[in-house]
Amino acid sequence: VQVVESGGGSVQPGGSLRLSCLASGFTFSEYDMSWYRQAPGKERELVASITYVGGRTTYADSVKGRFVISRDNAKKAVYLQMSNLKPEDTAVYLCYPTSWARLGRNNYWGQGTQVTVSL
Fold first, then answer.
1. Helix (H/G/I), strand (E/B), else coil: 117
2. Which distant-in-sequence residues (6+ apart) come within 8 Å of 58 by Cβ?
């Protein structure tokens, strides 16, 4: 099992980034997927989720209207399009099967991708 995040970087406030996550080792098309983020000294936060059936999406209030989660089951990939970025969005962003995170099945977290928003 492996998840590999990419696409992070440093941007100014108001900028945009598109994060990608490639998964392997499990039946990706049968799992709801989520993006999480963790800032230094803070708890991991659920940012956005997408179901495997119907592609229904949900977002944290802090990112609603600015972030869009999507997935491509053929590529075993999940994406996070981030717009109008704010300094408080600075964090390491990680993707993971939603149910695994909820159940505390934490063996397979990746390294994440760093997003830094500053002037």
1. strand
2. 48, 49
